[in-house]
Amino acid sequence: xxEIKYPDxxxxxxxxxxxxxxxxxxxxxPTDRALLAAEIDGVAVDLSTVLTSNVAINPLTFxxxxxxxxxxxxxxxxxxxxxxxxxxxxxxxxxxxxxxxFYYDFDxxxxxxxxxxxxxxxEVHLIMKEDYPLKRIxxxxxxxxxxxxxxxxxxxxxxxxxxxxxxxxMYQQGNFIDLCRGPHVSSTGQIGAFKVLSGAGxxxxxxxxxxxxxxxxxxxxxxxxxxxxxxxxLEEAKRRDHRKLGKELGLFSVSEETGPGLIxxxxxxxxxxxxxxxxxxxxxxxxGYEFVYSPHIARRNLWKQSGHLDFYQENMFAAMxxxxxxxxxxxxxxxxxxxxxxxxxxxxxxxxxxxxxxxxVYRYERSGVLHGxxxxxxxxxDDAHIFCRPAQLADEVASIIKxxxxxxxxxxxxxxxxxxxxRPDHAVGSDEDWQHATDSLxxxxxxxxxxxxxxxxxxxxxxxxxxxxxxxxxxxxWQCSTIQLxxxxxxxFGLSFIGPDGKPHQPIMIHRALLGSxxxxxxxxxxxxxxxxxxxxxxxxVKVLTLGEAQTSYANDIMxxxxxxxxxxxxxxxxxxxxxKIREAETAKIPYMLVVGDKEVTARTVSIRKRTKGQAGTMKxxxxxxxxxxxxxxxxxxxxxxTLSTNNSN
RNA sequence: GCUGGCGUAGCUCAACGGCAGAGCAGAGGUUUUGUAAACCUCAGGUUGUAGGUUCGAUUCCUAUCGCCAGCUCCA
Length: 650
Hints:
Layout: E1 2-5, E2 11-14, E3 18-19, H1 20-24, E4 37-40, E5 43-45, E6 50-51, E7 55-60, H2 65-86, E8 91-92, E9 97-98, E10 101-107, H3 114-130, E11 135-140, H4 141-150, H5 154-162, E12 167-173, E13 176-179, E14 193-203, E15 212-221, H6 224-239, H7 242-248, E16 252-253, E17 264-265, H8 267-286, E18 290-291, E19 297-299, H9 300-306, H10 308-311, E20 320-322, E21 325-329, H11 334-342, E22 353-362, E23 378-388, H12 393-410, E24 415-421, H13 431-447, E25 453-455, E26 465-471, E27 477-486, H14 488-492, E28 497-498, E29 504-505, E30 508-517, H15 518-529, E31 542-546, H16 552-564, E32 569-572, H17 578-587, E33 592-596, H18 598-603, E34 605-610, E35 614-620, H19 621-634
Parallel strand pairs: 1-7, 18-22, 24-25, 31-32, 31-33
Antiparallel strand pairs: 1-2, 3-6, 4-5, 4-7, 8-10, 9-10, 10-15, 11-12, 12-13, 14-15, 16-17, 19-21, 20-21, 22-23, 23-30, 24-26, 26-27, 27-30, 28-29, 33-34, 34-35
This protein binds one RNA strand of 75 nucleotides through strand 14, strand 15, strand 27, strand 30 and helix 15.
């Protein structure tokens, strides 16, 4: 007899040899989702798995990340089955689940066309309808190889040969067999709604020296409704693309003549950037930072001493010669801040030193990876370096984390995920240093009662780090903030401070960025707000719209008053219809429109229209100004709510 | 960088071997307008660039630059 423990802490006793699905019988799932697979002692398995010892069982449904993985993994198999049914010569490579669906790579003589994908999707639907059961078959490595050799699946043979385990498993559905660790859902009919998304080239094992395979992406959901919602989300993401909005709203451009990956900021985009940076600077002053500035180039030797030439050269632009001395465009700001540190003798009383700079750096990126503001060749880091004593580490890190959260919240981000990366295989610094540093990061996180995920071995070679990801309004995750400890540079540059004992000690250096890159952060903001910036960030906050020539002087008077309060306004005095003026202001995503006609001139009021929300009542200009100033101060976007106005009927 | 797709007016797109067009934007004019597009006229192009094939190339071929999707890497 064996005892099974359930997530609600209940226990039941079964005969040894019971299957997972039998053990789940009568257990009420927390959702009305179908049971897909099970997690036994933390490992995902098929429902047909035979249980022979005391275990903890956890049902897997589409609601959990693990459940989705299983679901999408099976979907990838269905995709592969369909592709081979339509194109028998296509050879299988790999087909894993990913964050938002799955893909499968095939060796095929040509790229798949959109027509191919349609044909494949039809076949997928047939396979779902046929409801083939997925059967797990265990083989020894030796026996498995001929199975795939016979099928001409060379990549599968290669994979089997690279597996350490002497026994391998494969899954069969209909006449389709794939090498696979599993687990899977029990039959192809369990997949509810399926969409073949796109095809693209991908290298075998991600290495460009290997042959190019044809990858097909897909996504699936239990219901058609969820699939439709997902597809709407994809459309919405396209609609919010910062490259498209950046052009439409006149924020920035990239020109072929200037060069790829180099951003030209137009007046409106530059205003938004200015507002971001001003806010950033104010916050830094409040939190005890000092500002430094550093040049864009430096002697190449500086980068030799820092070690960047050894480990970062492929991302650096080539050296330039200045009076026969090699100089280098900077890919990082840290060596400069270090030189400032070194410019005088430092006492332990001086520490921590917190030096911040919006430092523009230049990095060589391969042409194929450039992408709008997200991936560029020249960008501005919101950089800071903190030099402190080991004992100050935890406090410093804790205050950086708090600073990060408060800053990102002010930009409208609410959801954070925190990752702690520990020592990788190749690293500098002693075990002792790593231990202390990692413990300091942990205690900072625990001090603030923050839950986090540990990424073992994912730290940078010079020290452990904390990365913070935000989620935008579409639920997409972005990593902006990073806090990295560094033992390497202080060592390489021989940094020291004089301790209470009168002897030199080595400071620890913290590299940190809140926004990451101002360019990239701006891109994220554009997509997060769909270009409709909250009032505090909007390049133009108010547009005054006159009904006719009669209100021109009143409108100019309004403009003067708005400007006097530091508000950014434009007036539309043209002899155009109100509908057109409104349409253009809406398209420009200006938060507030002030409509003025003779009635407003007489009453010395303005009729307010809020972006996308419509009319928001008529009020005295002063009242509006006060409300807007309050809204800007709060960084909110909802101080003035639209009303169904009755006092301006016409 | 690699694989595939795409470069036509400021923008969005037609024409696909035979005189390069539309809408929006722009300029000039008419209209003085009450909450998301008034009307008329005009102007706007070495079809990314350089070669080639052809009687003739925006269209076909080659190279090159750029953009897009993906691979890889990362902020």
